[in-house]
Amino acid sequence: MSLLGSNPARSDADAKLRGEAVFGADLARPGMLWASISRSPVAAGRIRSIDSGPALKVDGVLDVLTAADVPDGRTGVIVNDIPFLAADYVAYEGEPVAIVVADNRAAADAGAQAVDIDIEPTEPVSTPEQALAPGVRLVHPDWNRFAVTGGADIGRDGNVVAEVVHDPGDLDEAFAVADVVVEGTYRTPRQYQAHLEPKMALATYESGRYVIEVSHQYPFRLRDRVAQMLGVAPSAVRVVGHHIGGGFGAKLDVSLEAFAALLARRYRRPVRMQHAALEERLVAPCRANALVSIRSAVSGDGTILATDVEIVSDSGAYANNGPALSAIPMFVFGSIYRVGTARIRTRNVYTNTAPTGAYRGVNGPWLVFANERHIDAVADALDRDRREFRLASLARDGDLMRNGQPLEEISILREAFDRVDELAPWQGAGTGELRGVGQAAAVWLTNPMPGHATVKLNEDGTATVITSATENGSGAVATGLRQIAAETLGLAADAVTITMPDTDATGYDAGSQGSRTTHVVGRAIADASAEVRSQVLDRASQMLEAAPEDLTIDDGVVAVAGVPAASLTLGAVAQAATWSDGPITAGASYVTPTPPHDPACATGMLIKGWPTPTYHLHQAEVSVDVVTGRVTVDRYVVCQEVGRAIHPDAIAGQIQGGVAQGLGFALSERVDLDHGRYVQRTFKAHGLPLAEDVPKVEMIVMEHVDPAGPYGAKGAAEPPIVPVAAAVANAVSDAIGVPFDTLPITPEAVLEALEAES
């Protein structure tokens, strides 16, 4: 019986249920020091002085380090703009200014609060609109001295971190002949990842090398970023991973780790650091806030002749991944719907706010929100049914995205519309009782980048998979990867063990991000397991005196087909191989090929293609309370294409969780900024959705196998969040008859809209 499509228990379930799993926040070492960071209390200003004296008077404090005590220069993922510690000026509230070292955490925290940082405040550049205003102050006066990785031209200019422009030059003609021009502006806020385990690091310095123990989604990037910050070779840094208490993208880059590593070398003792709750929020790499303006030229028969898209997203004080993510609009607009020609301009800008970063779905939720709200607006302007208009405008197999990449299977989306209509027939409009329905579609990528695994057959007949793929909660490692290895090797799932990440012991892996683990690492595991299987059959054929092709492997037993008595356990085969030819092991790597595309399609693009696409349709039904303004999601349907469902329960959990996060983004979560400073500073004020706010999601999982994937699997964990805000906003707009083009759709916003209509 195949393990594929079954639901074996997670390998980490027992330890987590019993409280025995060791998370990063649980780590401690004898003799370790604690360190805490003194952070800027203002969003912008010049540092006049730093007085360590008050901190050094705190009992237990050993030392205070400032910029003069740490490596000079700036580093970053793409743009080298981040100082180790602020030296001359601060660019956001919470920016690290000093490090306090103590023999216990309480002393370190108290010392960090006691450091007297004298800053001459400057009026912050608080919003992207301000950042682009003529004559505005530059967030970084020396921005043109910041090096860019690889020397790429990403369109930097002043407060513009990066700019991507796709301009075919033929829009004017289309707008000149249009019967209808539809315009819209769509605003979305930041979104906080709200993971429960704070960021931490435990570092030691041993034999000239840094060892960092951590809960992290991407150990190899962490290794490389710490090495970059310390000015050492990557091989001088070892990262050892532990259980992760949530991340959702927040734990993809360096945080406290380089500070802890520096101190471990300085004091030759283990050094532990961990964010406090407020500190975690102040420096969280939230999803970027953004402004999207769209203008479409439409003919009387409903053909979209051209679309002009202008996007401004907030990078915060530093670039982080913003230059790469600025390419994503190229894959959202003019992709699933036929829009004739399109001009797309994206600018990512500096502000005096905490740097933004990755959150599940990266830019997708706000880009799809803008695109799908605009499709509704065009349908309304034409007095067309919104579902019917989508179907009429849907791209066809082989149509090109803006980067010149063909979408070969976009007809899967048409299937999704049919499947959803079978389960929840489209009513077309609300009932007149403040009830509404909305749809949103998306095509989303499965993140590529390298993955590696080594599979070894143990002498007791079990298998071990050695990889630095990280289990971030999705179950990709705890379920799917084990099933892939077990299926190939003829073992039960619980006979396969997968190691924790260790950059010294494994090949490179690009981390838990973008739904890549099952597809990419799973492919590497499938290939390595196939080689192990081949070695087993070769050895067993000699032992059983039968041809390898006549052997089967099932439930840990190698047998001659049709002759059950002629059999051996995998353990016996492994033992024989170990003491003759050597242990049975194999390693394999996989990198998703870049899809065919036009490399000259735009300027400034760092992401060139949209690999291993998956197709999605969401439908939301809502009701609105006329007295309170509260929106209730009465029904939510997801149709998601996954390639092959390796572990259906894990996919269902990801869909339910992604929708919950999307509902928070759409309706309730607040990450407001006031003069560059966060307004909401606790979970209580944040507005996360509660269990009562989230309906049971009805799911349709479509399987269309991908030949490159392990047993046909594509990505599944990231896409469920992407269309949610769009579907809900379309439904609320339908219910009230007023367009909601700004998120979140709070009760106050609903009441204002109702009052304006009355």
Detailed description of the structure:
The chain has 758 residues and is of the alpha+beta class. Among the domains are: 151 residues, Aldehyde Oxidoreductase, domain 4 (2-Layer Sandwich); 318 residues, 2-Layer Sandwich (Aldehyde Oxidoreductase, domain 4), CATH 3.30.365.10. 27% of the residues lie in helices and 24% in strands. It is built from 20 helices and 30 strands. A seven-stranded mixed β-sheet has the order 3-7-1-14-11-12-13, sandwiched between helices. The model has no long low-confidence stretch (mean pLDDT 97).
Topology:
Blueprint: H1 13-17, E1 33-39, E2 45-51, H2 53-56, E3 61-65, E4 74-75, E5 82-83, E6 89-90, E7 96-102, H3 105-114, E8 116-121, H4 128-131, E9 160-166, H5 171-177, E10 180-188, E11 200-206, E12 209-214, H6 219-230, E13 237-241, H7 257-267, E14 271-274, H8 277-282, E15 290-298, E16 304-316, H9 322-325, H10 329-332, E17 341-350, H11 364-381, H12 386-393, H13 411-423, E18 435-444, E19 451-457, E20 463-466, H14 476-489, E21 496-498, H15 516-544, E22 551-554, E23 557-560, E24 563-569, H16 570-578, E25 585-590, E26 614-624, E27 631-641, H17 648-667, E28 673-674, E29 677-678, H18 683-686, E30 698-702, H19 724-736, H20 747-757
Parallel strand pairs: 1-14, 12-13, 16-17, 20-21, 27-30
Antiparallel strand pairs: 1-7, 2-6, 2-8, 3-7, 4-5, 9-17, 10-15, 11-12, 11-14, 15-16, 18-26, 19-20, 19-25, 22-23, 23-24, 26-27, 28-29
